[in-house]
Design a protein that fits this description.
The protein is built from four helices and no strands. With about 100 residues, the chain is an all-alpha fold. Helix 1 runs antiparallel to helix 2 and helix 2 packs antiparallel against helix 3.
């Protein structure tokens, strides 16, 4: 199976996002598998829009959206000791513990 360049980049960004998520919020099996399934779906959609449909600009748009999401996670990791970072992390941990 051939994977186009945007799909490969999305896969790498998503793996980094999963690693940052584990580092930031701790390991949770259910969240980990949800992230893996979400990554597989996004990579499939990116690859499909690149090869089957021929809309490579949609694939690159998905790459840009994933980059923005990754940068927001990195920002939270960098600022987790600030009041804003602590609030976001505490809220996310509360939401995960409710499930």
């Amino acid at each position: 199976m051939n994977i186009c360049r945007p799909a490969t980049i999305v896969l790498g960004i998503s793996i980094l996002g999963i690693i940052f998520d584990i580092y930031l919020l701790g390991f949770n099996v259910i969240e980990f598998f949800k992230n893996i399934i979400f990554t597989a779906i996004i990579v499939f959609i990116t690859n499909w829009s690149c090869y089957k449909v021929g809309y490579t600009w949609i694939s690159w748009l998905i790459v840009i959206i994933n980059l923005l999401l990754l940068f927001s996670v990195v920002y939270l990791i960098k600022n987790k000791n600030t009041e804003f970072g602590k609030t976001v992390i505490e809220e996310e941990n509360k939401n995960r513990n409710k499930k």
